[in-house]
Model the fold of this input.
Amino acid sequence: MQDRPTKLKEYQTYIDGKWCDASSGKKFQTFDPYTGEPWALIPECDAKDVGTACEAAWRAFDKGPWPAMSQTARGKLLRRIGGLIEKHAEHLAQIEVRDNGKLMSEMHAQTKYLPEWFYYYGGLADKIQGAVVPSDRPDHFTYTLKEPVGVCAFITPWNSPLMLVGWKLAPALAAGCTVIIKPSEFTTASLLEFMKLVIEPAEVPPGVINVVTGYGAVVGEPLVTHPKVAKVAFTGGTATGARVNELAAKTFKKVSLELGGKSPNIVFDDCILDDAVSGAISGIFAATGQTCIAGSRLLLQESIHDQFVEKLVAMAKQARLGDPSKLETQVGPVTTPPQYAKILSYIDIAKGEGAKCVLGGGPATKEEGGGKYFVKPTIFTGVNNKMRIAQEEVFGPVLSVIKFRDEEEAVAIANDIAYGLGAGIWTQSVRRATSVSKRIRAGTVWVNTYRAVSFLMPFGGYKASGLGRENGAEAIEGYLQTKSVWINNGPGGGNPFIMKTS
Ligand code: TXE
Done:
């Protein structure tokens, strides 16, 4: 078990290559969701600190070592960052667990995998190139340049704090952007440790990566509206994403949004049943259901419904709740008090709507392995797709089971939702796998697996689940803009009052 000291650790934030307090001198507490106790103090920044960070990021983008650095040197720097994350993966995972209550087994896997993003985008840094474009007029030479968009603001959530920063940071640095990161007020510490253990020793020039810590609207809104910010990359809830998009539009910023989901996990009667049961569990109870890709709507073909539910309940009942820092724990606490209240309120809503609770259905007691913010793995059957429990994101360990007759009905139910982030399909038929994957309106479809992500595969949402893509070569495009250059090697002249066409 990790050591849990009682004295509060004091953090500073990192702006323009220097460690500093908030300009107001204020600090706020961050909590360990397992014990419910505060464990660290974080600077409470405001619009003034945002202004300082934006100016620093702009200076670093405009002059100094960063824009002068070759793409190859940037690639090497990214690989150095990757190496330092590997070195400190264990420690970073421990901080994540203390701050967000996710399982050590999961957070360690995440911090060990995170270097791959920096190796991959480090490798791509000097493959970013424009093109020589054929010209339709004699004497003209035309080409394009791929240039960084400029200063980027990242606003990130509490569910996978470092990983979701890494998904943005690696392609942005590879593209040559500078960055300001506003982490969630619930889970700031791992990013500050990352700055100390990784970014400083990697010798990233001052102003290239800045952190402004603090509350959502107080720090987030001045960041999203600051004139020096050219792009906002946001991961969080759909309502906040809409607000960010609206604010950013006023100054024509580029925006990428990775928002919520209500993903269908569809089980056909020709699947390998035990694999699908395990896939359904991983879809909703892993990470205590606090993932945007949670398979929170389990669509079961009616011919296997009863048998499947029986196996599912039997397996979910075995889940070991407890201290997230212990490797044997399978379900940990909910990360934030508002999230805990939200999950419990949705359990009440589901009961009120007439769904049948066949497992869990409330807080987990100490005897059941729970603690302050624990919700029992909960399964509702008899859900129809019109109910709120089927349509709205709970972001917790609450599964809605919906019956379907055939492929046609499964696709109709899967798509009858505002979201479109992920979907699972369990079948042994290649025809069904390819055809249903094509018809589902979601950014990712997993067949006979669930929750797989990689630096190589684009990730993002259809519909209300977001805009743009993270990961894969495509993500770099979000941090670049194209410049067209025309060079006239011939005589000037011609009619100056008309557009120059060929
Ligand atoms: O997220 P918020 P919350 C979903 C999930 C959850 C709900 C609310 O359903 O129950 O969102 O969670 C910053 N201007 N997801 O309230 O508010 C905030 O400080 C600028 C899905 O925790 O979206 C934090 O850094 N920024 C999700 C970030 O936005 C603002 C992950 C996300 O917080 C702001 C988390 C404002 N006005 C929640 N208000 C996913 N896609 O994985 C807040 N923020």
The longest strand covers residues 140-148. The CA atoms of residues 230 and 253 lie 5 Å apart.
